Amino acid sequence: MTAAARAGLILAFPALSVIALFFFVPVIIALALSLTDFDIYALADIHNLRFTGLRNYVELLKTPLFWSALGNTLYFTSVGVPLSIGASLGTALLLHSRLARFRGFFRTALFAPVVTTLVAVAVIWRYLLHTRYGLINYGLAHLGIAPIDWLGNPHFAMPSIIMFTVWKNFGYNMVIFLAALQSIPEELYEASGLDGAGWWLQFRHITLPMLGPTLLLVSILTIAGFFQLFAEPYVMTQGGPAQSTVSVLYFMYEQGFKWWNLGTASAVAFVLFLMMFTVTALQMGVARRLAIP
Amino acid sequence: MKTHLAAFSVNGALALIAALTLFPLFWMFSASLMPAGTSSVYPPPLWPTHPTLENYHELFSHAGMGRRFLNSLGIASAATLLSLLFNVSAGYAFAKLKFAGSQSIQKILVGALVIPAQVAMLPLFLILKTIGLVNTLPGVLVPWLAGVFSIFLVRQHVATVPDELLEAARLEGAGEAAIYLRVVLPMLRPILVTLAVFTFLGAWNDFLWPLIVLNEGKLYTLPVALASLSREHVQDSELMMAGAVLTVLPVLLLFLLLQRYYLRGMMTGAVKG
Amino acid sequence: MIGRRCGAWLAGAIALLPGCTAGDSRIALHFWAMGREAEVVLELIPEFERLHPGIRVEVEQLPWSAAHEKLLTAVAGDSTPDLCQLGNSWIAELLALKALVPLDAHLARSAISREDYFQGAWDGNVLGGSVYGIPWYVDTRLLFYRTDLLAAAGFTAPPKDWAEWLRMLDALIQNSHGERYGVLLPLNEYDSLIALALQQREPLLRDNGAHGNFANGEFERTFEFYVDMFRKHYAPPVSNSQIANVWTEFARGYFSFYITGPWNIGEFKRRLPAAVQGKWMTAPLPGLNGPGASTAGGASLAVFRGAQHAEAAWQLIEYLSQPAVQQRFHALTGNLPPRRSSWQGALESDPYAAAFRDQLERVKPVPKVAEWERIATEMRLVAERVVRGDLSVHAGALELDARSDRILAKRRELLAAGTIL
Q1: What is the pTM of this model?
Q2: Which of B6, B44, B116 lies nearest to residue A276, judging by beta carbons?
């Protein structure tokens, strides 16, 4: 072995062993746990642990709350992701416009929620959304809209959380879109003959296709992020009202760290993993068919 | 004339969106200065008629947030340093010091990116239990020690260091340690700052893992303490807002200060990656 | 160069982490308490530390809403304290986890006499013939109400039975236009429903806690009564976190009745504005026909199996059980003492405590199974769905049976195998 190779091994070893010990080993244990009935009885006495095969997974499919958690997560993702990406792209286009002034300031202002602590801003929003004393209902009252019980009405709780999440996250993708927009060569617009054409035609035929790879990447990452909804309902609604904001991860947390049904909770974790994996693979497939590099 | 109108609408739209975006943060500051009980009235006040620092005083004297602030600071700083220590050397090794199996290991690591961290969380708790790290601050650090994303971020930047430079140093008789410390690290300074900002913000803002692993209030980080406080003291909205300010302000300032580095990290992570 | 500097930072950061200060030769006794009790017990500790110079007590405050999961996590993570305040409906669960030690040996040579304790409170801590906790305070749920609003609605005395209560609630919300309600029953708490359900003769679980026992006439009648409170707009369908401030709202007359526990005597005295003081009172929980039962709640002090200082923990329990200390504790919190001898003095003349003294004669414990907390949570969740009209009362009761039976599956297996009793 050369000196360089030996140095490489030595330098890579600490990080690799940490990742192996604290990530890969737990993942394998999780897979094993999901095939057992590990619960508080087993926690007390390991002899109460039994191998149950796929029973946890079968039981999950028979648990109504799991299905509603799944439904809630899909609702959150399918409505939230397009809204979030739309807001990001819209603001990025505004910022990229030649007419925009104070770009640095606006970019920082719009990005600020991204770096804030989720728990803290969720607490703020809980008060803003308050039915009687919240500023959001106060604002709506000026528009003649009757007070909405945002976090207390099962129909409005998830939309509230979506609204909050879009506010919190759109700045991230906005900055990525902005960079992608800036990398589109100006000549493309000039050479296309669409120079005098309307904004929409330029957007449709040049900007959007050029943004293709970025859009794909952004949507993959955003969907993966949205699937992991947890802290928002934990702080804002505690899963309620009527469990309308229990997400898959929230369900896993309760099964695992509230009731210590580690078997069930591990099964939930793997279902979440499978879901995310499938959706990502589907997106890649679609992208390949559309020939986006 | 038409351009004027267009310019007006673009900038008007930006100003409106920025105002809406910043409003919750503005209200957080404003409500944190209101005397207890005065924010929950109708119509809701936008700013305090009699500003007071009473809530901040309460936060430190009774709610014990000073202690939690130090916990958060300690954890975020230690996570930053440890993650630099582990990830930078691994990133460098993968980029420049090919060893047997380094290619296949990198492939496995990329594969690991698709597994959500939550899958590992339950058994990780059991593992930490056996080594006695549950309910300790070092236990909170464990997931931050090394990260695949960070390793690749570094690797990508090291790749831009010309091989000739390293070869020249070797020819001059420099050892591998000296090359790493004296040649490579100084060139990586910008990306080190980027990685540091990312890790610091991530560790400071992290919620689920410290929530699970800590069960003694005096060890809580700010987000966990705030979530727990907000469940117990729902009625004290002004106190909650002061707590939110305490939690958000440091990361907001850090970001404003090092914005350039943070955004650079996002770009390499997303656009080129 | 950079490496060395990093190293120095690292050492500095790690030195920050443990945060404990050395130089105190006393043993550190770790005591976990919840909510307000944790704040108040701090005032009782200095006297204990003066009496026991070798012991330093470190009190840890857990918020009530997260206390249960934090406790189980501590047991699972082997990071339990020496002693803890426990909701006494959790004792069965912690025993299933083998987390507590029996206190019989300590009791045998102690001044604590079980005869002095209220029967219901003591019994909740006895499992399989052993004592696992010493009651710290007793707690039951009953009515707090606005005497002035009730009088304005034409009633001079609190309700004795359900029918009378309903008449009052109906009168209270007349002309309120949905701005005011009769009673607050937070949808994120199961306590009110369980208190009402304990009034019936049928137990909530049957066959030694092997099955749910909800789909029967008795429970469904209680359930119907509870849900009707919302259907008729006597109670707002909200959770606690949506009421910005329970005390402010009570003072504003947003609701006139509130089913809650003794700690609120102190909170009401302290938090209600002067204008409302003297205009509220407590009353026993009405039952179907005359005064009804309520929950035998409260908290006990228990010593963990992993305790490093079990003897010191027991000394703290004995100290906190002294009638004089319990009276101070009551004065600070409004929590009611579990010993009859602690009730002499100020408590006897407290008009707000009288209803509790009365109610304590009619308290029942919840079923002693490890899964009870989960079943109680399901009761809350199913009740919320019924309140919102997703399920009928009967369908809700059937759903509760199904969910309980699923939760109790492993208990049935272990019962059949004789692993647990």
Answers
A1: 0.86
A2: B116
